[in-house]
Amino acid sequence: MKDLITAHINEPPQLEKLYRSNKALFKRTFSSVYPELKGNSVADVWHERLSYDSDDIQWGTSQDLALLVGASLVAGLIAKLPAFAQLNEEFFYTRNIGFIIFPLLTAYFGWKNKVSTKTMALLAGAFVVAAIFINSLPNQPTSDTLTLSCVHLVLFSWSILGFSFVGNSNNSEKRLGYLKYNGDLVVMTTLIVISGGILSAITVGLFSLINLDIGKFYFENIGVFGLAAAPLVSTYLTQTNPQLVGKVSPVIAKIFSPLVLVMLVVYLGAIVYSGKDPYNNREFLMVFNALLIGVMALIFFSIAETSKTSHHRAQVWVLFLLSALTIVVNGVALSAILFRISEWGITPNRTAVLGGNLLILVNLLLVMIQLSKVLTKKTSLADVGKTIAIYLPIYSLWTIVVTFLFPFLFGFK
Question: Is residue 56 one of the residues assigned to a domain?
Fold first, then answer.
């Protein structure tokens, strides 16, 4: 997108076409290249246009809204399949939860980004193969490989959505934009779910005042459709109105990064003081790894947000220290996993966690090295973002291995 904007800066019709193809990406990219184009009359006009904060919400065309309503209904119907087809709910939802939303979002971004028919067919085929595979696994609720496949299948579906979001291009800028989209999606979906929850509580409460108990019917029908539609509506709003959370997400990143840094320092000190360790406590190790993944996600989200805006040196220091501390946490978790493997042998869970932690360790080391170069003014924060973006497909490959190969490698244990 950056190269296209620069190449067509003196061609207003082409710029308008680029803008309408992906407003959110265009706005972020233009903001990053404008300092180089400042003084050009067309660039200055576009800067004023994109900098203008309108109070109006853009709802798109009637066709866009019709597609949104249709997709929301489809998502709700998929979520209600166990009730319609008399399927076991635990069996269905544990294996197919990702198929309620991800295929529809993939189709949406494929349409918006004008992804080639061949590519969309491959992505659709990947969903079909994944659905057949996961629903064909033996029904053994205590199977570790089944649990791992179900969990990593959601991450695999997330990866497919990423390919659709990036479109026919394969540059790091759009991959980083995908991380930012996920952050915006979480913010907007949370707001919608909270608002929907308040509306639901009021509705059920009002009906109870006239002695009509609609709670079960409401949550099994309207509530299910609402939850299924929330990510779709959130995606539509964030893509048509980038300004809605465009200023909120960077603020969240700036506020929570230093807070998490302080929390991590205190927590590591508390671990030493309490005498707790993840070497002999499986549950503690699980919490430790959850903490690791959460902090890493915050680092990546913060870099995705900060790399496109002006940043202070203090922000970079916070991200650098947070990366360093997360590497320490990762090192402790890795040593605990290796200890448990040496003591009690290899299991599917230990192997999956070991592989994931090794990938995270390498990624964090690369990010920390790049952040150190930013501090010494040898590179820019945008290059840190590229390091993250280039590494993303490796995570996708790991999800494929765990989802599709682990059940066979470990004999469906």
Answer: no
